[in-house]
Amino acid sequence: MRSSAPAAARSWSSAIVEPDTRALLSAAATLQRPPRHPWAWAWLLAAAQIVGLALVWWLGWQWGLPLILGTQALVFWATLWPQSRLLSPVLVRLPACERTVWLTIDDGPSDDTAAILDLLDRHQAKACFFVVGVRAEAQPECVREMLQRGHEIGNHSYSHPEKWFWALPPRAMRAQIVRAQAVIGAIAGQPPRWFRAVVGMANPFVAAGLKPLGLTRVAWCARGFDTREADPARVVARIARGLGPGAIVLLHEGAPHGCSVAIVEAVLVHLAAQGYRCVLPATCADGAAPRAAAAG
Ligand SMILES: [Zn+2]
Fold this sequence. Notes:
Elements: H1 6-17, H2 19-29, H3 40-59, H4 61-80, E1 90-91, E2 100-108, H5 113-122, E3 127-131, H6 133-138, H7 140-148, E4 152-155, H8 170-188, E5 194-195, H9 206-210, E6 216-218, E7 222-223, H10 232-242, E8 247-252, H11 260-273, E9 277-278, H12 281-286, H13 290-293
Parallel strand pairs: 1-6, 2-3, 2-8, 2-9, 3-4, 5-6, 7-8
């Protein structure tokens, strides 16, 4: 697979050696927050359980039980809430931005990818595609095309187990993250630096998979539930509620309803009408002009 990646690798390399882009990448580096203490939650949870049991022993269940159950419920909530920072750092929006957003498109590559790439070109927009490892293996040329057109690639698990990702045990979780990183890195010529949890639900074992790879978890602050909602106008209306400078916008490709391309187009039209530019995090963090986003 590596032998078929040189074109993308050249494109990627040529992007990162341009002086403007290098400065912007250093700005992006300040946004990266790989987990530093991926097992801190386990120690804190264990300590809370021990204290809770001690309270039960000394003062009765009405004192200890709320602490035991409450801390377990907190970990469960943090797993299900995509923007929670309790178990690992997560990017929800970007700082210091003037009418710029970070467009993120999940679940590719798909049959929609080519049309979406054309749309992005037409709107002079840059996006980050959070791709699924097994789908990247099936359509590596789509991944290279994303890079060649100046977009970025993120890790969105190896097989996208959407029903069970939130409940995967440590070993299976690590395999999802590591295998996708290897596959995508081999195709792109550069490993991703961003990770998006499947359905946004990052359980306590995600951080341990991200740390050794230097991956930063990315959530969003604007979403339109576009995998279920086929009406572009409704998706746009929902996304509009979360928009603001530095907003991270969540979109998908290849949705079963077949309207993903129309939805992406409607969102791009809305963003342009509202005066927003779609840029990559380096540009956004630096507050730089759109020309820099197109440097890749
Ligand atoms: Zn997904």
